[in-house]
Write a structure and sequence with these properties.
alpha/beta; TIM Barrel; globular; 394 residues; eight-stranded parallel beta sheet
Length: 394
Amino acid sequence: MTKRNAILIAVVVGVVIIAGGSFLADQRDGFLAYHSLLNWFRRDGAPTQTPAAQNPPCSLNPKPREFNREPYYTGKLYDSHLHLPTISGIVSSVSTNMGLPTPAWDKNLSTDYLNCLSEAEGVSKIFGFHLLTKYSHAGEVKIAREMEKKYPGRFVHFLMPTFINSWVDVEVVTVANILRKNPGLFVGLGEVKFIDGRSGPDDPKAHELYKLAREHKLIVMMHPFNRHKELVEKILREYPDVKFLFHGIDKTSNGGGPHEEVDNIEWVMKILRDYDNAYYSLGSQLHFYGFKKEHVGKAVPSSETLPRVRAEFNDTLDQTFTRWKRRIESIHDKFIGGETDRWHRPHFDAELSGLINEFIRSFIGGLDPSVREKFAYENAERLIRGAGTSLSPN
């Protein structure tokens, strides 16, 4: 076979997959039908595992503390920022190849395992982000329904529409249909992050999402870049009746890479003071995503990050106190604590996850006693109360 013919065949197959997926994504079974089409092209034809398959029993015990930081918070805690695995092995593979390594649910990383891990760490609720793409939205909604039925009140479900490109991004009308057909299931939209390099908080599609948030009383969880500061304040003014939960912008880039960081902590404090609808979430500052330049865009094994995390635990905690303690205590009703920002598969490793949890609890313990519970869960409870659905606190 000539190289030209091989390329031609690859292009034709790709077009068929994409066209078929575009058609099937509009059908009742959405991604499930699309997934079947893709499996037809696989050499082995092996089906992708689903979360229902071989869920392991809960056998995790609370991880012993490794550091003797006192005072230490042992009370109720919410995880306010967690990227859930995707229902789709295809989405997982494609996103990983793009440098956005998203794991898929399987027998090792199942909903039962995640529920068990949160119990072992004393986490009452998880703000869980369901990644929506054009071809996987039906499957993501289905698993959200299953999770809520199986673990009622454990997960606070957010729909996460992408801003990547038109081939991947789910349409706003699809998000609207999901919300209409699943009243009360979702309490927020996000994480909204404009990684396509073109969009921003003032993008027309973003405005359509804000309008949906207003209609359904949803929280908008957003991670803007440094270049978006003026636009962030613009939307806060335009949508005073929509609650915006920001994160990751106290040190952020213009969107060009993690090594172009700009310190925006005083601007964060300004928007929290100036806008009643602005909130900020904060969690572990440990380098569990990696610490080398070549780690960017990779799911770094926990065996590689754990030694660094342990070596830097105390120094990083001290730096976090210096940077945030007095600021949180000065506007104690606007900060949501406990976010792990777990995303890559190694982040769900029980040993690494336990250290992230220990860091967060060590930080909360160092806050003024009058602020600890607010930061750990009370502000989060107040934020989600009446948002999409009335979730009764545990």
